[in-house]
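Person: Please comment on this record:
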Amino acid sequence: MQLTRFLVTNFRSVENSNWVEVDKVTALIGVNESGKTNLLVPLWKLNPATGGEIQPASDYPKKHFGAIRQAPQNYCFITAEFETGPLAGELSRKAGITPEAAALVSVKRYFNGEYAVSFPQSEGFTGVDPSDVNSEVKKLIAGAMRSITDLAPSTQEHELKEIVLTKLNQMHDTLAEPRLSASDASEFKRELQFLIQEPDRRTTAVYSHVAELLDAIELITSEITSPGEGAADVTDIVLGALPKFVYYSEFGNLDSEIYLPHVVQNLQRNDLGSKEAAKARTLRVLFKFVGLEPGDILELGQDLRDARNNQREPTADEISEIALKKRERSILLQSAGAVLTEKFRNWWKQGDYKFRFDADGSHFRIWVSDDRRPEEVELESRSTGLQWFLSFYLVFLVESEGEHQRAILLLDEPGLSLHPLAQRNLSAFFDNLASFNRILYTTHSPFLIDAEHLGRARKVYISENGTTKATPDLRHVEKDPRQAGAAYVVHSALHLNVAESLLLGCQPVIVLGPSDQYYLSTIKTLLIGANKISPKRELVFAPSGGSKTAEVVASIITGRDEPLPKILLSGDEPGKRISQELKSGPYHGVEERVLSTDTYVGFTGSELEDLIPASFFAQVIDRWERNSEIPFADVVVSGKPLVGQVEAWAETQGVTLREGWKIEVAKRTKEVALKKGVSAFDHATTGRWVKLFQELLATRG
């Protein structure tokens, strides 16, 4: 099964993270203390390869500790959706649903350790008891009421607060019945949407809590159906096929010298702190790699203590036995060091390292040398970057073997101590490793963000109510200036990419945002594949976010004797405004280098989305949002801006367009377009694309 997205709720600093879409490689970017780790750890605990026990004192959010402690079975902390692949047929038969519905499965885990399985695209099966759903919805409403009651709104918002609390109280009272029907759930959602429908209320603190409640109820009530006869079998099949999760943080880094008696004790304890437990875990996999238990290594290295304690000379047989044990241990350790050296070379490209394991009495040591420094030194005397990578390598190698071969890797702040070049190599290494293992990692280093793949980055930030949120919108601006660090990382990564592209002779084009990057890179790939364009230099689309940033990006790009880069803007009002500012500023005298989408789509007020045919775009929207009564394809009109049409359609259908929806749709459009190929588009469309790219590639203007 393949993980597609996940949602964290009620875990440490996270109340509701928002859905986090997962790529082959996914980067969670955020400043310190934003809660990045609190998104990885619950995902690990969904199905850990090793460890990962639920720790109430650490994992329960302190705000609701008492309530969760009393009824942990009512609190879900992680929900993950998976594509079932070849399992869809079997699940379809067992659950009594269509193969299409069985293609996507949702797995929840609760704080009591229990799981719930459901199929989001089906109304015929769920592994969730409806009475549990009823209880959880009631709890969510009560929590929202408490949060809103604690607010101190402005005079203008006071009336809204009272109206919302009255309505929520009424909704809470209707949940006295043991079951929540599907019609009740639909009515709840309509009432919540009605409360927040006025645009001028969308920025209020009250709205924020209601919107979060709506999201949570939509998630839960999507699963309100009666369990099928094969519920138990289906749940067993799904849980048996879940990929394992391997979590690693720098706390697990190995020391160069290891005292074996302490290792033996710590590996038997279950009361270690997080740092000690992480190190003990790495030691466990180290000794598994060596092929011995630490107690055995300790035993094989014992001297003639018994004879000396009895104050007698050791016998020849005793001396021979001890010598044989030590020789056996030495051979085992040398063999393990040779195997590690050989395998490690295929991973780490920063040097040709050799490892040697050595044991002396109660002490176990790791010695390192390389081609540039052939003399052996202890691991601890080498770079912390090497210590991290070796430790991570051992954990991955052991925990992802056998039945865990397709494990998902969760890396918390990988490579913090690596040189920037090594961090870039690590990022490239992730791409190679992703052919076998999906990877999610947290970072605040621009060297670990690939500007060519910004679509796989997710921003993690602290919301106004102090909880952790995630969004694919990398331009999201929080009111707290301390949260600007994540966007800074993205901009830094972009600038690094642009600088490198200049050195490599690439041709940059400035666009406004990540969704624009998706559409243009998609069109570029299709046209090149169809031999309709043949760029002499690679086109790099650099997002700017606005006129001021565009000036900065342009100034960096034109640090040499080259013309200003071309910039492609939308034809809507914001695009026109930015165009005017640029033409009267840095692009004065070279106004022809500021291009508008209106020129290439045939009507005014257009955006980058309008480069895609309306019928094709509508198919993507309808696959993305399946809960509308009227498909977008039935109402879309060609020759008019698509974004405005989507927003109008969503309002009439009660569809909530979450923050960052344009990026998500752009990403899905790219996936579908590249899968179908250029033949899926008519000649008029490809003709407009060719005209645009010929203008972008032209050296004149």
Remarks:
- Residues 198-202, 224-229 have pLDDT under 50 and may be disordered.
- DSSP finds 25 helices and 20 strands in the chain.
- Residues 527 and 533 are 6 Å apart (CA to CA).
